[in-house]
Amino acid sequence: MPDSAHNDALSPAQDLLSKVFGYERFRFAQDEIICQLLEGGDALVLMPTGGGKSLCYQIPAMLREGLGVVVSPLIALMHDQVSAMQQLGVRAEFLNSSMSQEEAYRVEQAVRNGELDLLYVAPERLMMERTLSMLSQSRLALFAIDEAHCVSQWGHDFRPEYIQLSVLHERFPDVPRIALTATADNATRREIVERLALGNARQFITGFDRPNICYRISENQGNARDRLLRFIHNEHEGDAGIVYCLSRKKVDETAKWLAQKDLKALPYHAGLPAEERRQNQERFLREDSVIIVATIAFGMGIDKPDVRFVAHLNLPKSLEAYYQETGRAGRDGQPANAWMVYGLQDVIMLRQMQESSEANENHKRIERHKLDSMLGFCELTRCRRQALLEYFDDHSLTQPCGNCDTCLTPPETWDASIATQKALSCVHRTGQRFGVNYLVDILLGKDNERIRNAGHDKLTTFGIGKDLDQNAWRNLYRQLIAHGLLSVDLEGYGGLHLTEACRPVLRGEQPLMLRKLVARGGTAKRDRKASQFAGKADKALWQALRDKRQQLATQQSVPAYVIFHDATLMEMVSYRPETLEQLGRLSGIGERKLEAYGDEFLGVIREHLADENAPATDTIDESLQLFRLGMDAEQIANQRGLTTSTVMNHLAKVIELGELDVREVTGLDAEVITAIRFAFEHSEEPNKLKPVFEALNGEYDYAVLRCVKASLNQG
After folding, report:
1. Domain boundary, last residue among 360, 385, 408
2. Strands 92-95 and 118-121, how do they pair?
3. How far is 274 from 270, CA to CA, in rounded Å?
4. β partners of residue 486
5. CA neighbor of 567 nearest in space, from 547, 542, 544, 594
6. pLDDT digits (tens, 9 = 90+) for 105-114
7. Could you tell me the CATH number of the domain that includes residue 226?
8. Considering its fold, how many domains does the chain have in total?
């Protein structure tokens, strides 16, 4: 379009922008897109969240003669969008299943009478013959298909009803259409064009960069929930935010826990009653300082501009999902954080979910590739923003961004080539049948019956890894899986398999630089203190140890830390030593303090172990009866004046006797229980909880682990 014609077409649009919407100038390619629609052309728009996609169809709908029809996937979003338009004096309404017959009839009459500029409608409602017939009798300005990536069968938000939207081109060939999304790689863009018959549409790709968002990712060291609390208190006190979790149970637990820490945290997932979901979402959208803890069921199309942070407590299943979810932060363009912790257990659970799905093999293959890309992104040592944009074929960022963790605090790397050869050789020589814990034990030369019975103490890899500790080897294996050098056998027992990609490294033909493991020192230890541990049993022991320390300090008129530092007491809670020898292995306990205080602190630990592990039969029966009356463990504890951990011990005994199902007591999904059982079955010390607790990165507290362990002994 010549410049003069462009300016003539844009002039009334500029007036609307200023007078109705209150902005002085267009951003990105808004003016070009508006002109395309005003001229009657089709458009495919990829614009980052917060870039102003809505204006691209709202202004043309108001300027062109007739009705602008907006296809929107979420009822709650329609309500907000229509309310916003009506506040501006724009004649807008919606049609969806939340309306009464009378309300729907009123809107339909307004459409027929030509009294509306914008009509928001769900795709299911649009495809009804009644709606299509009504539109056929009306003057139409345009069709806008929002969240157009929903049309892709390989996308993270696939909505099958979107595929039917190709009928718009067939029934209304002269009405311009605009498809909009913030998330679509090349393959998804091609699918949008094909499925919506947009072959002649002009494409406007304004980039994917959200420079106001700071991306930060770290491994879960077993204290994720506490680190989240610390992050919120330190950086986002009083801010609105979203916390994403992988499971509904974790959503409920996390929301409850944050609420107990005096934060305004609300759960959101598909398992909640519809009215509770609606109310929680409404509060999030309407009130300040609300934190929504949610599964991926929450967020698509959420138009709240002042979300200051999006946190992930588990790994998203793809970079598309990660980009879409983190994009809900900072829509107003102000600084925001995308914060995530993840662990190997996330990968195992996501892959189990993929393999157990009913999707065809081609779909599963694509999903596996997307998860691998997500995991690889987490393990990056270069600029995260550059890598994220490149994944979407956006190469506009030629220099590191300076606003992600790898730019702000570059990770230390090390030449892991030799260590990797040891790790891969151990997988090969044990027959590619074993999980991480067992392989690490072989590398460290652990003397245990399982290794001896298998003859693996005779392998050349036995004991060759003593230069690294257990955590370092676990971290190494996680990164090798992330880099695609190893795969996890999910159909078997989680054994590691060599991949074709490992051969050059195994043969010494290709060096491998990996991230150094972040030590659990400094901030991590303070984080653990802030979390007050995972369960009530840990809290009770922690407080008893502090009381003992204070008693001894008072007797000697010295500060409590002179007896033992907090970090030492935390290790006592975590490891629960039973002998002076075991106690002496903890940090901060030398021979003098072991001699002076060892028996005192062991006495406290033994007392709590006895309370946790040896409940009387009659008290077990009482807890069981209350449970069968519909009380949960916390309610039973309150009723009986016990700790929740003690009640869970009672129920674990009943599970072991076969009188209760572990899922009924813990509320865990079947796949989670399978993963925990797997950890017990492959633990060097299957009768102890601590190794399993550590193997699962502290994801589940000891009371839950004890119940699952009891189910293994059931009968």
Report:
1. 408
2. parallel
3. 8
4. 498
5. 542
6. 999 999 999 9
7. 3.40.50.300
8. 5
